[in-house]
Amino acid sequence: MASEEDDDPIIQEIDVYLAKSLADKLYLFQYPVRPSSMTYDDVTHLSAKIKPKQQKVELEMAINTLSPNYCRSKGEQIALNVDGTTSEDSNTYSVKMMDKQTFTSIQSTTNTSRYAAAVFRKGELHITPLQGILQMRPSFSYLDKADGKHREREAANEGGDSSQDEVEEDVKAVTVRFSRPESDQARQRRILSYDFLQKKQAEEPWVYLHYHGLNDGRSDHERQYLYCQAMGGSENTELVKTPKEYLAMLMPPITEEKIVRPVGPSNVLSMAQLRTLPLGDQVKTLLKNVKVIPFANLMGLLTPGTDSTAVLRCIQQVALLVQGNWVVKSDVLYPKNSCSPHSGVPAEVLCRGRDFVMWRFTQERSVMRKEVTAIIKLLPEDVKDFLEHMAVPRINRGWEFLLPSDSDFIKKHPDVAQRQHMLWIGIQSKLEKVFNFSKEDLVSKKDPQTEAMHVSGEQRLKAAHERARQNQPSLQKDLSARRQGKGGAGPSGGAAVRVKEEPVSDGEDEPMDTSSSSSALPNGLVNGYPSAATSAALNPHNGHGGTPMPSPSPELRDFVWNMFRKQHVLTLSEVKRLFNLHLASLPPGDSLFHSISDRLLQDTILMSHCKQILVPFPAQSTAAADEQKVFAVWETGETFDKHRQVLYEIFMKNYRVRRNVIQTRLTQEMGDQVTKDDVDRLLKECCVSFGGMWYLKGTLQS
């Protein structure tokens, strides 16, 4: 220690005093656009003013017009542009020459606690805290005034040709408006706006000052206040600090600046923030937000390289396995002491109801909301919330599970799937006791016909593509046989092969009935080719030998699409009638259409952006089966598609409705923009009227 002190000896001790007489009045002026060698000490200061709250200062200084560096012509031109040719007391430059300039301040820093002015006298250092540090820069407000004068002169020249007597004041209508109450958010935006800040700054009045030069007696008197006035007497306790406290004051610890993040919803978490959480919290947060997710997608959202076994342990704590996908547990979404926002039902009851919905989806792909509501006895709004977590609504099929079954996960993790299966058995037994039902009761209530109607158009379309793919070899073989003249009459006609039509089993495709035009097409021929039944007998691989039906040809799809674009709504019997008329109009030998069965025709309709409308015909209806199959164009790419879809939904509940019902429903779904012309167009395209009621085309019984 002694050697270190010898290397750094104390040369002199200086007493430091804190002067506070000018602590709230002392400012440091900086002139960044002027070299330090050229001060303004000898320049005449014409005026000075300050806004203390804003720490804004303006100084007006004279310009030496007699200097050889001053351009007199330029100074006169500037004065002319600013004040014009008139001589008034309000002129900026009274001598018709730019003889002064204004300096306006801006704050160098808003925190001056680390800065002070110091003077040294007789071995004593006196420091005074600074109130502000201001940079003085030239102001060019005179250019704004010159620009304003220029616009006034132009306006006067444009209006000088008109006589004052001829000018009449226009009478304008005044609209009185009452402002709405300002919201808190709008008020915050207004306060932070530039116009508001400028207005607040303009409200503070200027305080005019008297300038005293460097060598003025008043300036010398004020400089005496830079020295501490109470040097004798009581000890100044403000600077009596311990060495550690004094060191902390000189070198404050470095603190990280708080990063202000943009304000967002409380439930939104970035992926970077998410990955800073423990693995269990990451999985829980993701499941709470997405509600349903496949395991592969969950692994993709987590940090790369995360152990899948650890993720499986975490996810089983917050989710249940449904159809190979993970659905967040009910008690995670509805914690204790919470309640329903719709009915106020406690969380325990909500969890039981949601568990029942989840269990139903472990048994089947789709559920009906009415059936669920009837069992769990909760409000439809609560049940809808449960279903929206894990399903999507389908027309005439209830609510379908949101994701396809993930069989790959079940194959890769049979132990997890088995454990979840046992867990669901336990949940089922509890639900049966709570809601007093059995699984057999639910199965027995299902109507086979209703289940058959729940086959979606997408499923039928997929099945049609699959049948076409599997039947491609047989189609090519059949086509080559026809070209070689095998198996029946050629394109030129010839003798027809008469066969006896065998009954078709329920599991096979039924050939299209062409009896309505059989008289026009003798011997079972359709336009020179065998009919559907004849072709089936000649080619056992075409629809009746267990092989799937062929896919529709582009010509058939074009015909069906054009037909529905014209008619919009058609029954199956009407489609078949129009199709037979089209066949009869084709020239002899045309082989574009052959072996067309009912199933193929219906598949073609569903592939043409059409859907089947399940009209609830009355029980006493005498309509045939083909007349009760109603198809309608669903999507054409027009904005009017939404109107048609709303109309079809109405006719799925009743086979006949009144116009006012349609008008009201359209207004509810589409808003007030629905006009009378829209309703008229809709009814003209899709409906027929009888006895004050409206029916879909083809559904009106004679």
Notes on the protein architecture:
By secondary structure, this protein is of the alpha+beta class. The protein has three domains: 15-63 and 99-151 and 189-251; 277-453, no CATH class; 468-482 and 508-696, no CATH class. Helix content is 41%, strand content 14%. It is built from 28 helices and 22 strands. Strands 2-8-5-4-3-9 form a six-stranded mixed sheet, with no helix packed on it. Strand 14 and strand 15 (398-401) form a beta hairpin. It is elongated, with a radius of gyration of 46 Å. Residues 445-702 form the DNA-directed RNA polymerase III subunit RPC5 C-terminal domain. InterPro entries: RNA_pol_III_Rpc5, RPC5_C. This is DNA-directed RNA polymerase III subunit RPC5 C-terminal domain-containing protein. Residues 146-170, 445-551 are annotated as: Disordered.
